[in-house]
């Protein structure tokens, strides 16, 4: 059976459309290709960027900044020893860029200069640790990316 050029052209166009539709449906439904923004309110957070820069500058003026240490129990956050730990208020944000369901926020309530984030809160991979804190009316900001 011989296929004419017109029939061949229609079959080629139909095959191309079928391939593109298969590709689009696969990309939409497959969870491996699901990507979210790092934060839900991206544009709102962008408007406060100058405030964040000011807080980061305040943190750099301290004689000692926050230190992160990975131990077998979890992640230990060491606050500056020169500060009175009872006056430190704020939040620790644990962001997982690849999965927003793993994001969490921990309010700061210190009983010493160290805060332990348990190992059970982390899975292997990249984490963004953001600490937005205040000490006696002065605001500070600390951000570090870690591989856990």
TrEMBL record:
- State one Pfam family annotation: FixH
The transmembrane residues are 6-28
Which keywords annotate this record? Membrane, Transmembrane, Transmembrane helix
| InterPro entries for the chain | FixH
Q: Which protein is depicted?
A: FixH family protein
The protein's organism comes out as: Salinimicrobium profundisediminis
